[in-house]
Specification:
Blueprint: H1 6-12, E1 14-17, E2 21-24, H2 34-40, E3 45-50, H3 52-63, E4 79-83, E5 88-94, H4 100-110, E6 119-123, H5 126-131, H6 136-156, E7 161-165, H7 184-197, E8 210-212, H8 214-222, H9 234-253, H10 269-298, E9 302-303, E10 310-311, H11 322-344, E11 350-353, H12 358-374, E12 376-378, H13 387-407, H14 413-441, H15 446-466, H16 476-492, H17 499-504, H18 507-527, H19 530-536, H20 542-546, H21 553-561, H22 565-581, H23 596-618, H24 623-646, H25 649-652, E13 654-656, H26 657-664, H27 666-676, E14 678-679, E15 684-687, H28 693-722, H29 727-755
Parallel strand pairs: 3-5, 3-6, 6-7, 7-8
Antiparallel strand pairs: 1-2, 4-5, 9-10, 11-15, 12-13, 14-15
Length: about 750
């Protein structure tokens, strides 16, 4: 850890990911859209002053504001650009040499009566080399001239952002005869002089001329693609312009995926209170541990001085009290949350942009599949979707989703569509699992509901507080929480129809199907009534849970994308349990699910359906079209997988313990990845060990998985304490929780008020 400002890294170092994606050292670069660039530069004046290379940078910069701009006009004259709608003015001033003329122009900006540009980008040298045929006298004069300009630039740097662009190397083999004297050796000498002289009088001052040296690194990789050996190819110029935009705009716009030049966000009131709470928990646990240790020492086995025999302690090892367990859990959680904060809120660890290649996605997929097959064991039971099998299913899906996120595979549409099916499969299991429980057990008690809600939401609520993120940011948890409540409401409202009741009269089955039909009707109505949906979730305090960036559109999009799959899971559970009750399927060890003929036909149909979906997903043209069809067709591949996995008895009788282990902590893995495996709220990758990408992934993955496993255990322990089985105690706890959330809403309102 070198410390310092990430702006310095952005302006001076980095590397290419692939051919065109520039990765600054230690931080992430945001790709600005036209609207974002205009908002950042609102009422700003930008001035580019220099030679033809600066003119190229000027054009790339204004194309970020207006892509329709064409590079035309007097090449050896001033060029003016203005966007009247945003009051933005960008000028290019033709001063190809660092001389008296350039000095006079810069001096005019230092006068108090003249409006100064907010951003000044300057640079020149190649003309001096060319005109004076690369003579040493020209270099000496350049040093004298830049020495006279440097104090003026440093004075401007007190009120404006001033950048001096170092000269890019040339590709000498492509240079014309009139430019042969412009050698890389000469360019290095001119650059060295500029770096040594600039800021020499203000080394300890905050107001400095920023040296834009990263362009040299970019040019070293791309100058061979230049048309004339002197000017950079367009993609390299665009990268330089985007770096300039990041340097100036990141601190203003604060994009999530633009960590370069962004200051560490100040702690909010709620974060400070959380810090105090976890600190007190750690202190409390240490005090109780010390008291227990002292008590244990007093009661420890010791030698009787009179008889010389060992005397056993009168008291055995003390029982762990509820308070101690509570403090122990919060102590561990506090340390873990500190790690979360340091990883993704403090500017302590480096962050890098994702870069997708087919190998970065498919090689890890093959590797984990081999590992999963290696750890094959027999299941305890051979029912369809038994516990080991569902854990295995969750496990391998979660691992694939993790690889998808870290590799940035969302840019590859076929992979994106298959990952959407995996997310839908999670929701399918939500419908299947909760319906099966309520149908078989008939347990609609408050204890069951509170247990599920606590286990689903505990980690996310803590992260919302510690990481200062809205609940909807962790979209999957709100999704499964709302669907759980919908399943509960559907089955719990009168008449409550469960298997025990339905066995006495077949009409109850039709009653349940009628309930499911009503649910489907409501889903269809809401999916085609965006206004009604948004009104429902815009009411306070629901809006506090489901708003993201000031509206509930993101919640509407996420809900609509998989709107039918939970219903499909419930319907599948009903049909399967009905067939099982009537003994129409065979679930013995090694037995096919149906008769040989029916099993073979269903297997053939399932394989064809599975492959057909994959072919369709691979031929999709764009995300919008695919997302429109996804809610209706995703169930095809899910059902095909279930049948392929369960019809053959020998496949149904085994499972992968490797995948099942990850399946048990799949929810924690999905949520924790946001901050301690990925970075910048999933937009980038956390870098614990710079310079060694593979080793970094191994180390960060190991810590990430251990933390997820630990949080899973903490959640289970706290669930036993916070959600007791006794109804009267549970009611008191619910009142306390209601008070906690009321306080949270109050503090959140105070926080929002102070921000505005």
């Amino acid at each position: 850890f070198k410390g310092g400002d990430t702006c310095e890294y952005l302006l001076s170092s980095g590397r290419f990911l692939g051919e065109k994606v520039w990765q600054p050292h230690s931080c992430m670069m945001h790709k600005y859209k036209n609207s974002e660039a205009k908002n950042c530069l609102l009422d700003r004046h930008v001035a580019f002053i220099g030679d033809s290379r600066i003119r190229q940078l000027f054009y790339s910069f204004i194309k970020l504001l207006n892509p329709q701009v064409k590079e035309e006009g007097n090449k050896h004259g001033n060029i003016l650009f203005e966007d009247k709608s945003a009051s933005i003015r960008v000028d290019f001033l033709w001063y190809p040499e660092v001389n008296g003329s350039m000095r006079q122009r810069i001096k005019s900006w230092t006068e108090d009566s003249v409006a100064k540009p907010h951003i000044i980008v300057a640079g020149a040298a190649t003309w001096s080399i060319k005109i004076h045929n690369g003579s040493n006298e020209a270099l000496t004069q350049y040093k004298i001239n830049i020495s006279s300009i440097a104090p003026l630039l440093e004075k401007l740097a007190k009120s404006s952002d001033v950048y001096w662009v170092l000269q890019d190397p040339v590709y000498e083999g492509l240079l014309s005869e009139s430019r042969k004297m412009i050698t890389n050796e000469k360019i290095d000498a001119y650059n060295e002089a500029a770096v040594r002289i600039l800021n020499s009088s203000s080394r300890n001052s905050k107001a400095k001329v920023k040296v834009f040296s990263v362009s040299k690194l970019i040019a070293q990789e791309t100058i061979m693609k230049s048309a004339d050996g002197l000017h950079l190819p367009e993609s390299s110029r665009d990268t330089n312009a985007m770096i300039l935009m990041n340097v100036y705009c990141n601190k203003i716009m604060k994009p999530i995926d633009g960590s370069c030049c962004q200051p560490q966000p100040p702690l909010t009131l709620i974060q400070k209170l959380a810090f105090c709470f976890f600190t007190l928990s750690i202190i409390g646990y240490l005090i109780i541990s010390l008291i227990h240790r002292n008590n244990y020492r007093k009661n420890k086995s010791c030698t009787d001085l009179e008889s010389g025999e060992e005397r056993k302690p009168a008291v055995s090892t003390p029982h762990v009290s509820t308070l101690e367990m509570l403090l122990h859990c919060f102590c561990k959680l506090g340390l873990i949350m500190t790690y979360f904060y340091l990883c993704d809120r403090a500017n302590l660890f480096m962050k890098e942009n994702k870069f997708y290649t087919h190998s970065s996605f498919f090689i890890p997929i093959v590797y984990i599949l081999v590992l999963g097959v290696f750890y094959t064991e027999n299941t305890k039971e051979t029912k369809v979707l038994n516990r080991e099998q569902t854990d295995e299913w969750k496990g391998w899906m979660q691992l694939v989703i993790l690889i998808y996120h870290i590799s940035g595979a969302s840019t590859f549409l076929p992979v994106y569509m298959h990952i959407r099916v995996l997310v839908a499969a999670y929701l399918f299991q939500t419908g299947y699992g909760h319906f099966s429980y309520f149908w078989l057990k008939g347990d609609f008690g408050v204890y069951r509901v509170c247990q599920v809600l606590f286990r689903l939401n505990f980690l996310v609520v803590v992260l919302c507080i510690v990481m200062d993120r809205p609940y909807q940011f962790y979209y999957f948890v709100p999704l499964v929480t709302v669907w759980f409540m919908i399943i509960y409401a559907t089955l719990a409202i009168w008449p409550q129809i469960v298997q025990k009741k339905a066995n006495g009269n077949c009409l109850w089955h039709f009653g349940l199907l009628l309930k499911l039909l009503c649910l489907l009707t409501c889903i269809c109505f809401l999916s085609y009534s965006q206004g009604v949906f948004e009104k429902i979730f815009s009411f306070w305090p629901l809006s506090k849970c489901f708003e993201l960036n000031g509206n509930v559109y993101e919640w509407w999009f996420r809900w609509k994308l998989d709107r039918y799959v939970v219903f499909h899971g419930m319907l599948f559970a009903f049909i399967y349990l009905a067939l099982q009750k009537r003994q129409m399927i065979s679930e013995g060890k090694g037995d096919p699910l149906f008769s040989s003929r029916v099993s073979n036909i269903l297997l053939f149909i399932s394989v064809v359906s599975f492959l057909t979906y994959s072919v369709w997903a691979s031929s999709c043209k764009n995300k919008t079209e695919c997302n429109e069809l996804h809610p209706s067709v995703s169930v095809v591949q899910i059902l095909a997988f279930i049948l392929i996995r369960n019809i053959p008895g020998y496949i149904r009788s085994v499972y992968s313990s490797f995948f099942a282990w990850f399946g048990k902590i799949s929810l924690e893995l999905f949520i924790c990845q946001y901050h301690i495996w990925l970075a910048a709220d999933t937009k980038g990758i956390l870098v614990l060990i710079p310079g060694y990408p593979m080793f970094n992934v191994l180390v960060s993955t190991f810590i990430f998985v251990c933390v997820a496993h630990e949080i899973s255990q903490i959640t289970n322990d706290l669930a036993q304490i916070v959600v007791p089985k006794d109804n009267s105690t549970l009611l008191k706890r619910l009142l306390c929780i209601a008070g906690f959330f009321s306080g949270l809403l109050l503090f959140s309102a105070v926080q929002d008020q102070s921000r505005h």
